[in-house]
Amino acid sequence: MSDRMTTPWGEVELSRFPEDPRDRLRAWDASDAYLLRHLAEEGVPLTGSVVVVGDRWGALATALAEHRPTQITDSFLSQEATRANLARAGVEPGAVQLLTTQDPPPQRVDLLLVRVPKSLALLEDQLLRLAPAVHADTVVVGTGMVKEIHTSTLQLFERILGPTRTSLARQKARLIFCTPDPALERPANPWPYGYDLPDGIGAVSGRPVVNHAGVFCAERLDIGTRFFLQHLPGPGAGRVVDLGCGNGVVGTAVALADPSAEVLFVDESFQAVASAEATYKANGVPGHAEFRVGDGLAGVAPGSVDLVLNNPPFHSHQATTDATSWRMFTGALRSLRPGGELWVIGNRHLGYHVKLRRLFGNCELVASDPKFVVLRAVKRG
């Protein structure tokens, strides 16, 4: 689905990635439009080094493309959406520099535009990484929906960059204005963050885990993953995919239990895949592993996988959607060999068994507790 956003410099046609006719969510929101109006109405200079952080689907980078901004994102899907939206707008390749959160940030920033992320930790990491490039004359403007901007959000800007205030709300969106203070003594960056896993969770019990900022439940093991780790299939799977790998504890557990397994760690988050690789290496696993940032199992050869392990997300930023889980399940069906298995952990209320039966023609309940279910679907020949 694509739609148009009106900006002070004309209309831009935008879409999410991958384009899905069932996904009715827009590729921009009121906070993007509010920020762009502010830049035009206040005559904010769009010269020098313009950096856009957290641009969810490329709305800001596309609207400001003539000013040759640098976009920094943690999301492969957002980066691909930006590429498509820039191409649709006729922007020449290379006019907008596309960086990930794992790339070195620009050395100088004259205009810093921040789309506030859902993760406060990711915001902290990004501001700390960019702070050395910010100078006294840098214009810093953040944006987000009112429900996304909290006192803790403003305190981060204040603690890392300088004095911070907010705008009035418009269409449930708000702006953040920060005045950089080069003399400010900034805290050390606490990311990546590591800790030892608890006992009683199989092969990774007591083992180290590494989390880059923004990874789901980066400061502790979430209860869903804990339950999944207690009910993983036994050794002998062959080629295994940890789909939506997060910090990689599930795939690492498989590799520790079965050194002959070949494990592919996949996530659309650059931070997550970096975490999975760091966790795997921290545990000195002797087996073979591959780490890939991408859109689920796209690019994996059909019929080449024996086992897929999946804890699908059911949010896209602030919106609840089943589009991601559906793509993951259909990708698993395509990638599995006949007789191969998809194991899924999910909240009971999400009803994944219905989708799996529709796709695979079968679904078995492996384990359950009052909140979670572990499901198994087998690809029939």
* Order of strands, widest sheet: 5-4-3-6-7-9-8
Q: Tell me the name of the CATH homologous superfamily of the largest domain.
A: Vaccinia Virus protein VP39
CATH class of the largest domain, please? Alpha Beta
Number of helices: 10
CATH topology of the largest domain: Rossmann fold
Q: Please, what is the average pLDDT? A: 95
Oligomer: single chain
CATH architecture of the largest domain: 3-Layer(aba) Sandwich
Please give the domain count. 2
**Low-pLDDT residue spans:** 315-320
Summarize it:
With 381 residues, the protein is an alpha/beta fold. The chain is built from 10 helices and 20 strands.
Q: Topology, pairings included?
A:
Layout: E1 2-7, E2 10-15, H1 30-41, E3 50-53, H2 59-63, E4 70-73, H3 76-88, E5 97-100, E6 109-115, H4 120-130, E7 134-145, H5 151-160, E8 164-166, E9 173-178, E10 193-196, E11 208-211, H6 223-229, E12 239-243, H7 249-257, E13 262-267, H8 270-282, E14 288-293, E15 305-310, E16 315-316, E17 319-320, H9 323-335, E18 336-347, H10 352-360, E19 364-368, E20 372-378
Parallel strand pairs: 3-4, 3-6, 4-5, 6-7, 12-13, 12-15, 13-14, 15-18
Antiparallel strand pairs: 1-2, 7-9, 8-9, 10-11, 16-17, 18-20, 19-20
Helix pairs in contact: 4-5, 9-10
Structure characterization notes:
The chain has 381 residues and is of the alpha/beta class. The chain folds into 2 domains: 177 residues, Rossmann fold, CATH 3.40.50; 186 residues, Vaccinia Virus protein VP39 (Rossmann fold). 27% of the residues lie in helices and 29% in strands. It is built from 10 helices and 20 strands. The chain has a 7-stranded mixed β-sheet with strand order 5-4-3-6-7-9-8, with helices on both faces. About 2% of the residues have low confidence.
